[in-house]
Amino acid sequence: MGLSFQLYSARAFPDLAEFLSLLGELGYDQVEGFGGLYEDPKATRAALDQAGLRMTSGHVLLPEFESDLNRVVDLAETLGIGQLYAPYLDEAERPADRAGWARFAERLAMIGQRVHDRGLRFGWHNHDFEFAPLADGSVPMQVILDEAPDLEWQADLAWIHRAGADPLAWIEAHALRITGAHVKDIAAPGEAVDEDGWADLGQGVMDWATLLGALRAAQVELLVLEHDNPSDPERFARRSIAGFEALAEGAA
User: Fold this and answer.
1) pTM: predicted TM-score of the whole model, two decimal places
2) Crossing angle, helix 140-147 and helix 98-117, to 10 degrees?
3) pLDDT tens digit string along 49-79?
């Protein structure tokens, strides 16, 4: 499994090139992009090359695939991205019933086909709202997977946990659909309030030893370390790769 770093976690760091250099020194070799880095993809690529890093995956908002796919493809080619994930759906756009989520899944499938036709991969990245049961008891994430059978899934396990669902059960049930996973931790109740309750890997309450074993068994290709709101991005980067290495060593 490849290990990457979601650069959204470092959006508050003042100097991108400096942070990329730090990631290289810490032992990272891959990163995942997000919208703020796509304004000048050539400059971002130059900074990546200087640091010896590859941007193998990237998050792109759903409307951008529909409004200007050529631009998305161009930036992916410039940055070297092969896996693209749509990461979010605004609350006002979220369907209220199963039929609406089925239509949303069809939308994802259509975008995925267009992206595949351009030689790239496409998938969905979850948050917590996809796991809130609907009035009929169905779960939006299950509807998406059922109605878009060729869609890749980047599973954010901490958001599944925060939604009150069991991330291990979802890995085991959908191992063949998960092509990437976000690896982040949740702080104990009452802790890390200034960081929205998230934690560096290995500093929280999630059973990552078990979850990483399940992801390995599922042959998930890419793991991405992330923290949604770290007060110190450098601390997060250092602690999390150390935590990952300790977990991987223990599993071995």
Assistant:
1) 0.96
2) 50
3) 999 999 999 999 999 999 999 999 999 999 9
